[in-house]
Write a structure and sequence with these properties.
By secondary structure, the protein is an all-alpha fold. It has five helices and no strands. It has a domain at 3-87. The chain has helices at 3-28, 34-43, 50-83, 98-103, 111-120.
C-alpha cells in the first residue's frame, strides 16, 4: 500500500495507541505497574474475603495481559506500515479489504485466515 493509502490507518492506529496508553496509565494509577497498583489496592481491604480479593486480582492481571496484547498488535501494525507490508494478509498474502482495516486497523489477517487462526488457537 502506498503512503497516501496507509496514512489514515496510521493516524487511526496512533490515536488508538495514545488512548490505550492513557487508559493504562489511569488504570494503573500513573507510572506504577499493574502489579504494584493491585497490591496497593488490595492491601488495605481486609473486609473482603480472600476468594473475592483473589478473583479481583486475577481479573486485573487478565485485563493487563489483554491491554498488552492490544498494544503489541497496534505496534506490529505500525511496523507493517513502515516496512510496506501493511494491508497484506500474513498467512495467505492476499490484500486485506479496506473495510476490514477501517474496522480493525491492527489486523494482520484477512477474514478467512483469521477464522482459521481462531479455530486453531481455541482455548
Amino acid at each position: 500500500m502506498s503512503t497516501q493509502i496507509t496514512a489514515p490507518f496510521k493516524k487511526q492506529l496512533l490515536e488508538q495507541r495514545a488512548t490505550l496508553l492513557t487508559q493504562l496509565a489511569t488504570l494503573r494509577g500513573g507510572e506504577v505497574g499493574r502489579a504494584q497498583a493491585s497490591a496497593e489496592h488490595f492491601g488495605g481491604q481486609k473486609e473482603d474475603s480472600r476468594a473475592q480479593q483473589e478473583t479481583e486480582r486475577e481479573l486485573e492481571f487478565t485485563l493487563d495481559a489483554r491491554e498488552s496484547t492490544e498494544l503489541d498488535a497496534i505496534d506490529a501494525a505500525l511496523k507493517r506500515i513502515e516496512d510496506g507490508s501493511y494491508g497484506v494478509c500474513r498467512d495467505c498474502g492476499a490484500d486485506i479489504p479496506a473495510a476490514r482495516l477501517h474496522a480493525a486497523p491492527e489486523t494482520p489477517r484477512c477474514i478467512a485466515c483469521q477464522g482459521k487462526f481462531e479455530l486453531a488457537h481455541r482455548a
